[in-house]
Predict the structure.
Amino acid sequence: MTWVLVGVGLCAFVLFSLLFVACCYSPWFRFSTKPDVSVLLVVRDQAPIIEGLVKGLLSFFRTSPYAWELVVVDESSRDETLEILRRLLRKHSFTLIAAGAGEDPLQAGLSACRGGTAYYMRLTGKVELKAAVAVVRCLAAGGRLPECGVYHPCGVIPGTSVR
């Protein structure tokens, strides 16, 4: 009887240890609320594409095994971009910041990002929806694009630039 209890205890210890290791090192078993990657969009006057862009990115994030977060900074839009983002915020989970006058929107967004790495894009001109989603997918695959930046605690990753 004693050996049975020792065997059951040993099996429970081994199973608990394996579960602990899986939770610590596997992206599929994360209990942490801190995301692996942040995507920061600094937008101005993007009403025609912003809803599709946010929904497309959040859909992409759900298919990834990694923990992502989306941070959107509105840079004093004169169209209905901010209203669309506020409406989306009621249905979807992301961070929205309305940058005030004189405030650096990129810095405000980066300070809100919690991921170990942050991809950021300034969308202040005419932007195609498919192109913006393709940029994030390319960056997620390890690609580098001159129109985007990758912020890491060590600084901007070489090969990227900020516009």
Notes: DSSP finds five helices and six strands in the chain. The chain has two domains: 1-31, 33-156. The beta strands are 37-43, 68-74, 95-98, 117-123, 149-152, 155-156.
